[in-house]
Amino acid sequence: MSTENRNAISPDEGSVKEEPIKEEPIKEEPVNSGWKKSDYYFDLPQELIAQDPLEDRSASRLLVLDKVSGGVSHHVFREIADFLEPGDCLVLNNTKVIPARLLGEREGTGAHVEVLLLKRREKDTWETLVRPGKKCRPGTRLTFGGGLLKAEVLETVEEGNRLIRFVYDGIFEEILDRLGEMPLPPYITHKLQDRNRYQTVYARQEGSAAAPTAGLHFTEELLQRIQSRGVRIAYVTLHVGLGTFRPVKEENILEHHMHSEHYQVSVEAADIINDTKKNGGRVVCVGTTSCRTVESASEESGWVVAGSGDTQIFIYPGYRFKVLDALVTNFHLPESTLVMLVSALAGRENVLNAYREAVRERYRFFSFGDAMLIR
Taking the model in full, what pTM does it have? Predict the structure, then answer.
């Protein structure tokens, strides 16, 4: 798996949309250049990939990028409060990473197998990524934890993923908490000593296979300081799967297919965001997942509708943002959909210049790395 290691409810109650919202991939023609995967390449020294989280979450560095002028300045992350104004709204993704990596063996052979839980289809049936996949055909039986958890491969689905049905005694979440490991990206080779460091301090809704890493920089104290400045916080949920992080294989980015991820926007969150827009404040999304959530849940007017659904939204240069005004994000992989998203907001050349500056200044990249504010 390659990662960077993955977007209007009226005030009255009758406007809540109960039917799941289906969002088709956004395929708008990009302006000028920026339609080739290679347009988003930059040189990244291997040693700049952060292997461990900092002891103090808010001590990460913060590069601030002006999306109009392309100008940059350098700060410490806790100073982000100084860039937020009374009346702004901070949108946070409160998804919680589950210990989705299971190590087991194939029954009968004892051969090792690794299963990554991606999406729950039914109570005990999950869409998964299995390694080695070729050895796990439909009908293959797997066992984990000396038989504490067993499974059968039901079928092969899109992109070679497997549908697996689990069999167990007790409560699945308790067994998973005992046997599962945090699904850290493959470029992180160090063992994580505290699994809570791969969770945001506001993580509540279980279901992600990866963390919304831009939010890892916030502490409870920093959030309280931000709110004391008159900034409102809206919590949305998008369960991060492989869709956000699948590598772009086609040189023509218009041919890239995004996988769906489930999101939910509460009435409270929609009201906060809509009030912010109505009163002239800025909507500042923390992470590309929060961005993709609000852009998926909004009407063309920019009015956010409460509800839930699956989104495949793909944002790249040429996309017109309906809700988002500013973005807090980490530094992403070259040629990834996430670099394309931030380029849609700030311009490809501005983003690549900022990334080159970050490399020169020895910023830390990816999940446990430093952050950028695009405003």
Answer: 0.88
